[in-house]
Please model this.
Amino acid sequence: YFEQMMMLPCALGEFRSNARGDGLSKRIVGFPEHITSDIGSIGDFAASAEVAFGTILQRSYSVLGARMHYGHPDIMNKVYMMQQGGVSKATKTLNLSEDIFAGMDFMLRGSGRNIKHCEYFYLTKGRDLGF
Model:
């Protein structure tokens, strides 16, 4: 994964705007993830299910403009997210994790907001399914 480390400046460059104070810069950038597991067939099945949702569906949602924040493989602009109230809020009627609520709250707070999905940078997550 040394090659992926060398692409980190390019991934962070996605947050640059065209001009100072430009409101068109990206706030959440999503990437696909590579899931590793050395448990055997159970780990392989779980990793395949994660790839189906974390990569294939997120790529499709991005084209449709419906991609939300999916947690681990996404990078957020921390200062902007803190200015809009953070990523998690407590309510009596809605009980969601921070991953889902951050994307939903971001999209509902104004028009013209979208979450970009990039395919050139992969993040890795280990899946431990020991029983």
The chain has a mean pLDDT of 76. The longest strand covers residues 33-36. The two ends are 28 Å apart (CA to CA). The chain is about 40% helix and 10% strand.
